[in-house]
Amino acid sequence: MEGEWTFRTLEVLSSHPGVRAGDLCGLVGQGKERFKLNVRKLKNLGLTESLGTGYRLSPRGEVLLEFLRSEASHAT
Questions:
Q1: Cα-Cα-Cα-Cα dihedral of 23, 9, 26, 20, to 10°?
Q2: From residue 58, how far is each of 15, 29, 73 by CA, in Å?
Q3: Staple 18 to which of 33, 48, 52, 54, CB 3.0 to 4.6 Å?
Q4: pLDDT in tens, 23-76
Q5: Are 7 and 70 in contact (CB under 8 A)?
Q6: Does 15 score more than 70 pLDDT?
Q7: What is the pTM of this model?
Q8: What is the pLDDT of residue 66?
Q9: What domain count does the chain have?
Q10: Domain containing 26 — which CATH number?
């Protein structure tokens, strides 16, 4: 689960729960299929949940995102 895509994807899902992948993929600079694949990777780690339409962060994903935000703010 390395790479900046992880943080960007968690941020986007946190800010836009329930929004279709096709509407979110451009926000992270990925094609729809790549975005969906990455969301599935995060889901397999228990970080996201699928909704009827779109996705949201799981409680575990929220905790990780807060940690990543904290780390990013300390790095600057």
A1: -10
A2: 13, 23, 23
A3: 54
A4: 999 999 999 999 999 999 999 999 999 999 999 999 999 999 999 999 888 876
A5: no
A6: yes
A7: 0.88
A8: 96
A9: 1
A10: 1.10.10.10
Tokens of 75: 């790095």
pLDDT at 14 over 50: yes
| Residue 35 domain boundaries | 4-75
Q: Which residue has the tokens 């979110």?
A: 24
Structure tokens given for 31: 């094609």
Task: Give the model's pLDDT for residue 1.
Answer: 44
